[in-house]
Amino acid sequence: MATLLIPTPLRKFTNNEARFQSAGGSVKSVINDLITTFDGLKPHLLDGDGNIRSFVKVYLEDEDIQSLDNEQTEVNQDSIISIIPAIAGGAI
Fold it and tell me: For residue 86, what pLDDT is reported?
């Protein structure tokens, strides 16, 4: 199963789970499995059209999925997917 790594700021929506496993064949299907299991994540990851929000970066191994096939990027059983949410704040 593909493994999705959940960043610390989003773990409050996953009962503090740091990893999620899915048999999905694409990044989109793995994300959909994740939000089906942990519905509280949906507004943090998906926009109103059901697409991954523009400020959320998703990587397959070391590659940004935007440089691959975006949400349709295929995954296999050994794939590692990482969600990198935008972090804002602070002063200059």
Answer: 76
Cα distance between residue 88 and residue 17, in whole Å: 23
Q: Is 34 helix (H, G, I), strand (E, B) or coil?
A: helix
Give which of 66, 22, 59, 15 is closest to 41, Cα–Cα: 15
pLDDT in tens, 54-84: 899 999 999 999 999 999 999 999 999 999 9
What integer is the mean pLDDT of 34-58?
93
Q: Which domains does the chain have, with CATH numbers?
A: 2-84 (3.10.20.30)
CA 75 to CA 14: how far, in whole Å?
22
Tokens of 20: 């999620």
